[in-house]
């Protein structure tokens, strides 16, 4: 009798294992569409919905930018460090709109790798937190605007009240972009190498530079007002739809490949680095 | 007690069979089976030798020039209405695809089963499935051709129940399916050849011009569907495109189709009809570079294919009257992204790749 039960349990266990394998395969994440949907939503209707992305932009997006634009002119009431930070945040905000829009487009065609599975939830969380910060800012700005009837709401004292949400919005956005870079790098084949030139060497140096620039904005934003504009100029050169042909043509452009290799070998000391960072490569090496 | 033992044994056997089938599938295809099925395909062509005839299409000598029947042939060769496409689009694609299959199938048939890698064995199953599916489709095509003929033959004596345009569209759908399955068969053959690890082996030896030819043949088989998926499978087979609502979106798609057609001509000139000699004295490095570029291109090509599959052109044209904004709002939030990806691929990646590869493989 005992033997009979044992065999029955064994049979059930085998069937259980087979069914588990079938279900795991059935519900495995196979594509990156879910993340693309999330990114598209943020750039179409959320806090990153700019005029450039949607032709209209969200009210929230316009309001925050208007507020920061006015705030940075208050040089008499704010310290130079604060003005620098505000300028950097304003430009970084626009740079994040372009970057996330780039990833929304590209992620749709990326592979669902382990890095994707590990990080896509974190990207969504960071963007959701940044959205919450933007919502708080919108509420605050509208409140001040209504109390002061729009006359003097951008006084220096409001900066102290909204600084934390702005810091966090920029930080969370930068964190999301950093993780998107990780996912993108892993999901497009990077193993192909010919003549010492990596297939995605160009996007690699683009993302390395972006990471450095975002770090400057997070850590040293009060030191110089040019960190944000540098990042904005850079992503506007390489990541906007109209200029994406430079990245697409990279495998067929030996001059560009050589320049990229020089930067890979010599880093920021390479003679080509300044041209690359300024975005002038788009006009120089855009078409084969 | 005995009954119980029998029951338990059966259950155990079933569980084991489930496990084994779950992991390994239901058996493999041998080279012999593939050879038999290619012979069956040849026999099917022989059976319909009055339909698949010898002749020249797109400067290619072929045994697959379709004889549509005297009356339809006159319309086709006279490029009357939408008949011309039957030769220039549908038949031409079939001929190019068959040309590849004929030139390359002997490579697979010459191998031994025990030489194959596990991936190649897996590919062999898919090749077999594509092969039998295509062979069966020939019957459907023959029937559709007969219906087309009888519709136009009866026109003088019987009032037709369907319009000429809709009969032609139905026929194109079946012809399109035949072409699609043949193109799938050629892709499957190319992938099976790749799975034999021939390219890995070629990387280790001093490359000969004929080795470049193997890569070129693989590439052209894998590329053909890029030119047929959109115009044949997604547009012509599903609607009369020229009759759809005009506007910005239609103009954009027309431009896309026109650019793709231009690239198709370039593809045929460079990789199907070209008689140029392959480069001599190719180094291992430049041969590896060629393989890398080909692999890399197919990553972008996969994105294009996905965009074509995900963009529902029929719904966009018929339900939304080619109003892209409305289609994106109500049906497919990625509509813009897919269309842009297609445009980008056709205007940037495809020409850059083909020009580059032609320079790498042919003598100046």
Question: What do you see in this structure?
Answer:
The complex is a heterodimer of chains A (288) and B (364). Chain A contains 13 helices and two strands, in the order H-H-H-H-H-H-H-E-E-H-H-H-H-H-H. Chain A has one domain. In chain A, 73% of the residues lie in helices and 1% in strands. Chain B folds into two domains: 32-196, no CATH class; 199-364, no CATH class. Helix content of chain B is 74%, strand content 4%. Chain B has helices spanning 2-24, 31-47, 70-77, 84-109, 118-154, 164-195, 198-204, 209-236, 248-272, 284-310, 313-319, 324-330, 335-361; strands at residues 52-57, 60-66. Chain B has a two-stranded antiparallel ribbon with strand order 1-2. In chain B, strand 1 (52-57) and strand 2 (60-66) form a beta hairpin. In chain B, helix 4 (84-109) runs parallel beside helix 6, helix 5 runs antiparallel to helix 6 and helix 8 runs parallel beside helix 10. Chain B is globular. The A-B interface holds A 4, 7-8, 10-11, 14-15, 17-18, 21-22, 36-37, 40, 104-105, 108-109, 188-189, 192-195, 199, 241, 244-245, 248-249, 251-252, 288 and B 4, 8, 11-12, 15-16, 18-19, 22, 285, 288-289, 292-293, 295-297, 299-300, 302-303, 306-307, 333-334, 337, 340-341, 344, 348-349, 352-353, 355-356.
Q: What distance separates the N and C termini of chain A?
A: 79 Å
Helix fraction of chain B?
Answer: over 70%
How are the strands of the biggest sheet of chain A laid out side by side? 1-2
Give a quick account of the main beta sheet of chain B: strands, pairing sense, barrel closure. Answer: 2 strands, antiparallel
Helix content of chain A: over 70%
Stretches of chain B where pLDDT is under 50 for at least 5 consecutive residues are none
What is the largest interface, and how many residues per chain? Answer: A-B, 33 and 35 residues
Average pLDDT of chain A, rounded to a whole number, is 84
Report the order of strands and helices of chain A. HHHHHHHEEHHHHHH
Query: What's the assembly state of these chains?
Result: heterodimer
* Overall number of strands of chain A: 2
- How many structural domains does the protein architecture of chain A include? 1
Number of domains of chain B: 2
* Overall SS class of chain B: mainly alpha
Number of strands of chain B: 2
């Amino acid at each position: 009798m005992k033997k009979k039960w044992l065999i029955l349990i064994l049979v059930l266990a085998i069937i259980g294992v087979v069914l588990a394998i079938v279900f795991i395969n059935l519900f495995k994440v196979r594509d990156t569409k879910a993340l693309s949907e999330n990114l598209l939503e943020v750039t179409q209707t959320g806090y990153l919905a700019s005029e450039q992305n949607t032709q209209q932009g969200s009210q929230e997006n316009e309001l925050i930018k208007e507020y920061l634009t006015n705030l940075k002119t208050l040089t008499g009431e704010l310290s130079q460090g604060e003005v620098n930070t505000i300028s950097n945040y304003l430009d970084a905000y626009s740079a994040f709109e372009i970057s996330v829009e780039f990833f929304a487009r590209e992620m749709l065609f990326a592979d669902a790798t382990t890095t994707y599975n590990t990080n896509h939830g974190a990207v969504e969380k960071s963007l959701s937190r940044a959205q919450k910060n933007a919502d708080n800012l919108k509420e605050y700005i509208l409140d001040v605007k209504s109390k002061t009837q729009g006359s003097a709401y951008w006084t220096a004292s409001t900066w102290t009240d909204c600084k934390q949400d702005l810091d966090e919005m920029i930080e969370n956005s930068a964190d999301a972009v950093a993780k998107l870079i990780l996912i993108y790098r892993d999901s497009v084949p990077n193993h192909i190498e010919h003549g010492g030139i990596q297939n995605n060497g160009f996007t690699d140096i683009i993302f390395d530079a972006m990471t450095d620039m975002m770090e400057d904005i997070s850590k040293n934003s009060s030191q110089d007002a040019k960190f944000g504009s540098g990042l904005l100029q850079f992503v506007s050169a390489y990541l906007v739809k109209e200029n994406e042909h430079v990245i697409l043509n990279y495998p067929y452009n030996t001059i560009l490949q050589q320049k990229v290799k020089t930067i890979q070998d010599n880093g920021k000391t390479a003679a080509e680095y300044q041209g690359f960072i300024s975005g002038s490569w788009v006009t120089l090496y855009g078409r084969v | 007690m005995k009954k119980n033992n029998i029951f338990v044994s059966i259950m155990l056997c079933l569980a084991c069979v489930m496990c084994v089938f779950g992991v390994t599938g239901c058996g493999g295809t041998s080279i012999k089976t593939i050879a038999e099925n290619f012979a069956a395909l040849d026999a099917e062509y022989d059976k319909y030798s009055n339909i698949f005839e010898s002749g020249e299409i797109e400067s290619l000598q072929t045994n697959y020039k379709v004889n549509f029947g005297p009356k339809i042939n006159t319309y086709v060769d006279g490029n009357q209405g939408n008949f011309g496409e039957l030769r220039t689009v549908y038949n031409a694609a079939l001929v190019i695809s068959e040309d590849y299959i004929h030139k390359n199938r002997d490579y697979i048939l010459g191998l031994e089963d025990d030489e194959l890698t596990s991936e190649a064995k897996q590919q062999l199953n898919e090749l077999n499935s594509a092969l039998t599916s295509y062979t069966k489709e020939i019957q459907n095509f023959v029937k559709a051709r007969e219906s087309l003929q009888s519709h136009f033959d009866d026109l003088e004596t019987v009032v037709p129940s369907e319009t000429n345009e809709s009969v032609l569209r139905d026929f194109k759908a079946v012809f399109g399916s035949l072409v699609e399955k043949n193109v799938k068969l050629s892709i499957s053959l190319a992938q099976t050849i790749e799975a034999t690890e021939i390219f890995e082996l070629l990387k280790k030896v001093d490359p000969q011009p004929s080795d470049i030819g193997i890569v070129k043949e693989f590439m052209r088989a894998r590329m053909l569907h890029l030119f047929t998926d959109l115009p044949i499978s997604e547009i012509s087979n599903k609607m009369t495109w020229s009759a759809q609502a005009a506007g910005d979106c239609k103009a954009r798609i027309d431009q896309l189709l026109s650019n793709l057609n231009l690239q198709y001509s370039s593809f045929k000139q460079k990789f199907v009809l070209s008689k140029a000699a392959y480069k001599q004295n190719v180094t291992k490095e430049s041969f590896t570079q060629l393989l890398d570029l080909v692999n890399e291109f197919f990553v972008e090509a996969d994105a294009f294919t996905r965009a074509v599959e995900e963009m529902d052109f029929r719904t966009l044209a018929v339900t939304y009257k080619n109003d892209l904004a409305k289609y994106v709002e109500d049906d497919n939030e990625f509509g813009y992204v897919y269309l842009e990806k297609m445009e980008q691929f056709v205007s940037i990646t495809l020409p850059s790749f083909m020009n580059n590869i032609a320079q790498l493989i042919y003598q100046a």
